[in-house]
Amino acid sequence: MNQKLEELLQLALQTPEAVREQTEELNVGFDPLTGSWELIVKYHGSLDRLQALNIQVEYLIAGYAVLTVPEALVDRVVELEEVEYVEKPKRFFFGVEIPTENSCIVQVTLREPYLTGAGVLVAVLDSGDCVKLLSSF
């Protein structure tokens, strides 16, 4: 068990693909067409040498990057000194049961000046994995 690997990623790597496909979480980040994983890594230094191994590197900020790694090379990536921690993406769930109560909107809609949200054009929700644009009011 490697301390650099997130437990959920370790479980996913140890589980056969046919079983992973039947779960909601384990196959998130795996592309069956290419046999590769999209992984989020915390690192220091440079990851440029990974490109020679056919690994895509998308640098983010603050020492984080998203790698697209063939499954057979995940262990090699984890063993790199520059790599501090590796995790898989998570599925983003959105659910609103009582949106106005949860967002404290009730307090501003029941008294003067009776705010309605008129004029709000767009709300941006960012899960870290993707950005969704929703029109509002």
Q: What does this 3D model show about the protein?
A:
- The protein is of the alpha+beta class and about 140 residues long.
- The chain is built from five helices and seven strands; from the N terminus they run H-H-E-E-E-E-H-E-H-H-E-E.
- It has helices at about 5-15, 15-20, 75-80, 100, 105-110, and strands spanning about 30, 35-45, 55-60, 65-70, 85, 120-125, 130-135.
- Strands 1, 2, 3, 4 and 5 form a five-stranded antiparallel sheet that branches. Strands 6-7 form a two-stranded antiparallel ribbon.
- Strand 6 (about 120-125) and strand 7 form a beta hairpin.
- The radius of gyration is 20 Å and the shape is elongated.
pLDDT < 50 runs, ≥5 residues: 130-137
Share of residues in helices: 10-25%
So how many helices? 5
Query: What kind of sheet is the major sheet?
Result: 5 strands, antiparallel
Task: State the total count of DSSP E strands.
Answer: 7
